[in-house]
Amino acid sequence: DGSKPISGGIPHCFPQFGPGEIQQHGFARNLPWVVDSLADGVEPKLVLKLTPSDYTKGMWDKEFEATYTVTLKEDSLICDLGVKNTGSSAFDFTTALHTYWSISSIKNAKITGDFQGATFLNKMLDPPAEQ
């Protein structure tokens, strides 16, 4: 019913990851996304979109289009979260795909992307440290 965040699967944290000026992890994980496209075949692909509403503007008055694409390949699942500024003023945001997957070892996990120049919080360290 949207009253509480879902703790399972891959919640979408946007426009804020973690604590901050608006609710923890933002609003995207609590809202219904609209199916933009669905492709069957050898590598099925689903594209979902989220755009501003009265609810989002009540917390974060920005013009945006968030797109979440899921592609199922023979040996992998590809999840891509993109954000486009559709307004005339710049904005900052943080985001995350907050997965709840059980894996046999962290050494079996692989994250790919263009992270050059990005900072991150490594929670595998004790205490956690920004890198």
UniProtKB/TrEMBL annotation:
<protein>
    <recommendedName>
        <fullName>Glucose-6-phosphate 1-epimerase</fullName>
    </recommendedName>
</protein>
<dbReference type="Pfam" id="PF01263">
    <property type="entry name" value="Aldose_epim"/>
</dbReference>
<dbReference type="GO" id="GO:0005737">
    <property type="term" value="C:cytoplasm"/>
</dbReference>
<dbReference type="InterPro" id="IPR011013">
    <property type="entry name" value="Gal_mutarotase_sf_dom"/>
</dbReference>
<dbReference type="GO" id="GO:0030246">
    <property type="term" value="F:carbohydrate binding"/>
</dbReference>
<dbReference type="GO" id="GO:0005975">
    <property type="term" value="P:carbohydrate metabolic process"/>
</dbReference>
<dbReference type="GO" id="GO:0047938">
    <property type="term" value="F:glucose-6-phosphate 1-epimerase activity"/>
</dbReference>
<dbReference type="InterPro" id="IPR014718">
    <property type="entry name" value="GH-type_carb-bd"/>
</dbReference>
<dbReference type="InterPro" id="IPR008183">
    <property type="entry name" value="Aldose_1/G6P_1-epimerase"/>
</dbReference>
